[in-house]
Amino acid sequence: QVQLVESGGGLVQAGGSLRLSCAASDRTFSSYAMGWFRQTPGKERAFVARISANGGSKNYADSVKGRFTISRDNAKNTVYLQMNNLKSEDTAVYYCAAINERVYWGQGTQVTVSS
């Protein structure tokens, strides 16, 4: 079972940047597609970005295209989410996910954008 630990969340002003990291415990990390999702109170968890196992394919939610970049380092078993030009509506708990036959979730990291 893959264990995922997110880090890098925090409080930032609108227009600022943060980089989230998600470290995986599994030696087969490079076989998983990885994703970032976010959730605000009372709402369902929403897709943010996804990267294929070899990093060759990336997908983004329309709301973050051009501002967020997902990347991965398979040698470090880590996936990243670079978030630029942050907006107050990006405030949420961000979760990373390892996607294979099933989905494994991290514990989440809070991102708060002040306007």
Structure description:
- Helices cover 0% and strands 52% of the residues.
- It has 115 residues and is an all-beta fold.
- Strands 2, 4, 5, 6, 9, 10 and 11 form a 7-stranded mixed sheet that branches. Strands 1-3-8-7 form a 4-stranded antiparallel sheet, with no helix packed on it.
- It starts with a strand and ends with a strand.
Question: Which SSEs are present, and which pair or pack?
Answer:
Blueprint: E1 4-7, E2 10-13, E3 18-24, E4 33-39, E5 46-51, E6 58-60, E7 68-73, E8 78-83, E9 92-99, E10 103-105, E11 109-114
Parallel strand pairs: 2-11
Antiparallel strand pairs: 1-3, 3-8, 4-5, 4-9, 5-6, 7-8, 9-10, 9-11
Tell the overall outline. globular
- Runs in which pLDDT lies below 50 for 5 or more consecutive residues are none
H/I helix tally: 0
| Oligomeric state as shown | single chain
Radius of gyration: 13 Å
Please describe the biggest sheet, giving its number of strands, its sense, and whether it closes into a barrel. 7 strands, mixed
Straight-line N-to-C gap: 39 Å
Strand fraction band? over 45%
Quick recap of the structure?
With 115 residues, the chain is mostly beta strands. 0% of the residues lie in helices and 52% in strands.
Give the key terms:
4-stranded antiparallel sheet, mainly beta, 11 strands, 115 residues
